[in-house]
Design goal:
The protein is α+β, with helices and mostly antiparallel strands. It is 19% helix and 43% strand. The protein has 1 helix and 8 strands; from the N terminus they run αββββββββ. It is elongated. The protein starts with a helix and ends in an 8-residue tail after the last strand.
Length: 143
């Protein structure tokens, strides 16, 4: 019985090791040719003082400074109050692209900091940030 338990434990450990190596291979493939580099003219934006309920827009402009086309796969925000729009077509090397961000301040109050994660074919994950000081008469917070 002990031998069977030892055999099953060995099989389980070996299968976990193989899965971990496959994950590592997938991660290391992100440095393959096809990746490019983008640079944002302004990676963060401060909207300043806003009243709750205002909807404001900002366009983040980036340049593809790498050797390959840049394609945004998806954008993630840490808040449902942020909506985004991005080019679906690849941005060629040397060309610029725009990511549009909309912030809805309904229900927000005080100093707000929101982030947007840009998932595309770059070696490193890109992050954008927006700030605002939201005055909300319904939700007063005293510091």
């Amino acid at each position: 019985m002990r031998g069977l338990t030892l055999f099953m434990l060995t099989i389980t450990l070996l299968s976990c090791t193989q899965k971990a190596e496959k994950k590592r291979d997938v991660t290391s493939s992100s440095a393959e040719p096809g990746n490019t580099e983008i640079v944002f003219t302004e990676p963060s934006h401060d909207f300043g003082k806003l009243e709750a309920g205002e909807i404001v827009l900002f366009s983040f402009v980036f340049t593809n400074e790498g050797p390959n086309d840049y394609l945004i796969k998806e954008l993630h925000s840490d808040c449902g109050c942020v909506k985004t729009n991005f080019p679906e077509q690849p941005v060629k090397p040397g060309e610029t692209g725009v990511i549009e961000v909309e912030l809805d301040t309904s229900g927000l109050v005080g100093r707000e900091y929101k982030t947007i994660e840009v998932l595309g074919n770059t070696k490193e994950l890109k992050h954008l940030a927006i700030f605002a000081e939201v005055k909300n008469e319904l939700l007063e917070i005293k510091y």
